[in-house]
Each structure stands twice: as structure tokens, then as C-alpha cells.
Amino acid sequence: MNNTKILVIGACGQIGTELLVALRKKNGQENVIAADIRPQESVAADVAPYFTLDVMDTDALESLIVDLKITQIYHLAAVLSAKGENNPTLAWDLNMNSLLSVLELSVKHKIEKVFWPSSIAVFGPDSQKNNCPQQGVMEPSTVYGISKAAGEQWCKYYFEKYGLDVRSLRYPGLISYTGAPGGGTTDYAVDIFHHAVKDEPYTCFLSEKTALPMMFMPDAIDATLQLMDAPQESIKVRTAYNLNALSFTPEELEEEIKNLIPQFSVSYAPDFRQAIADSWPASIDDQAARTDWGWKPGYDLKTMVKEMLDNLRVLQAEPEAQ
Ligand code: NAD
After folding, report:
1. For atom 15 of ligand 1, which residue has the closest CA?
2. Which atom of ligand 1 approaches the CA of 75 most closely?
3. May I ask the CATH class of domain 6-171?
4. In the chain, which segments carry CATH 3.90.25.10?
């Protein structure tokens, strides 16, 4: 009998919204429990089973784990890069202490597997700019990056010291048409599409030449499921795996959108997020993920842009159709 019961913390965010659907398709709706700080009444009915949870409330988290007989945890709640710079101590507190609670409770209650995402933000201005290696200089300059770099070491520590099977990916900037982005430095690559489908001009908060690693959400979800399904012995990296898919500049994205919407116009007005973007690599070497558990992205810039525009147009037309 399959006793898998998965708890997804931060389930209402950009990743959680889509990860929930994929996990439920595989494990059954009732076996994947959504939890987020958002009040029940603000969450769509089809997200059920749903529990309002402040992950910082360790007792409430422990009760959920015990009462619902949870066997796996996906911990997604965090303060992201741009928001983190506006409130560094809050970002550190949530990102670090919630991870430690999840790790501690997972050992205590013999959780089989834990997923916790890291980020390309673990890299800093002295890291290799192109094809940034799995292991190399990692001196992040944002509080978000510092929390992810420290979190990776905690994951490795819990694996080595307690045998906890915790796995992690360094996601690049994620692009999706369902959930809204949560305050990261790569959010422009989602916002730009919303303006394009509405035939509105877009002002980009990064400069036109800023190349960053990016990924379309279906690839990120596939990578997450692939990582979590891989046999334990094939997971050789116990900090977090580099993951690469796309690398493009705002100007290149603008051009690709203009191939389909020629009248679209973009202007550039870099703000404080430019400094964060400048501190990150432009592309990532993900050979370890490819070798250890067979990672391979499915989308390139052209196919991602077409699918984003097609789906946003459908979503845009939906309220009128009702
Ligand atoms: P998001 O901001 O869209 O979602 C985070 C969710 O966590 C939100 O629904 C929020 O309500 C919830 N939350 C916040 N505080 C909480 C608390 N105290 N208790 C319970 N829930 C709380 O973020 P996302 O983009 O979905 O990212 C998820 C994870 O992936 C984060 O750890 C993030 O660092 C990582 N990541 C994301 C990206 C990206 O481009 N989206 C890239 C790299 C890494």
C-alpha cells in the first residue's frame, strides 16, 4: 500500500501553484496537502486539502506533520531576492529558521524525503560569470543568497549527521503564466509577457544587456519531480544541484516577443535590482544534474515565448467568455 502523504509549505506561490498540480497528478489530490500563510478564504476551493500555516509556528507545523501522517515535505516558503533586500532581517529569519524547523521536525518524525529549493543567488560577484560551476567561488552579496548558501550547508549537515534525505536544486529565474512572481530579480521575465498580451508598452527594471539564467516552469517542475524520484544513491550532491536551461538578456527576450507581436515596445529603467542581477552568473554549468539523475531541459527561448503568449492570451480571454 502507498502511504505517501506530502506536505507542500508555501503552496500558493509561483512554484507551489504548479508543483501542487504535478504532485497531485502523481500521488492523488488527497495525498498532497497544501499549506501557506494565506487565509483559507483567499485560497481557491480546488486547492483543498488546504491548511493555513505560518511555518514559523513550529508547534502548528509539528501538529500538521503528526495529525496528517506526513511522509514527505516540500518547503517553498521564503522571502525572495528583491524583497529580501528591503527587509534583510525578516528574510534571514524566515528563510533560515523555517528551514531549521523543517529539518529538525523531519528527523524527529522520520520524514522520508524533504525538498527545499536553493537558487542561483548563492553565487556572487566573484563567481564565474559564464557556465558557472557546481562548486566554485560562492560569496553571495544579497541576504537572500546568504540564506540559500547557508541553507544548502544545513541540508548537507542533516543528511550527513542524521541521514535525512533532503534534496535541493539551485533554480534559476522561473517563468510561468499561472502564479504571479513573488518579488525576485528575474520577475521582469514574467511581467513583460503580461504587458505584451495586453498590447501595453513595458518598462524593464534591468538593463537590456543583463544576461541571466532562466527556466520555464514546466522544466522546473519536471526537474523537481525527477530529482525527488531519483534513487537515493544517485544523489551525489547534498548541498543543491546547479540547473541550467535558458540564458538570455531582456533585449533578446524583447526581440523574441516582437517576432510574434511586432508592435510591442520596451524601455529600460534599471533600479536597485540591477545590482543584484549584476552579482549573479549569466549561465550555469549543470553537468552534475545531467550525469547523476538525467536532467535535460525541454524548452528553448523560442518555444517558451510562444507557450507563454499562447497561454496568457487564453487566460486573458477567459473572464470575458464566462
Ligand atoms: P513565492 O513568493 O511566489 O511563494 C512563497 C509562498 O510562501 C507564498 O505563497 C507565501 O504566501 C508563502 N509564505 C510566506 N511566508 C510564509 C510563512 N511564514 N508560512 C507559510 N507560508 C509562507 O515564491 P516562489 O517563487 O514560489 O519560490 C518558492 C521557493 O523557490 C523559495 O524558496 C524561493 O527562494 C525558491 N526559488 C524561486 C525562484 C523563482 O524564480 N520563483 C528561483 C529560485 C529559487
Report:
1. 77
2. 32
3. alpha beta
4. 174-213+245-317
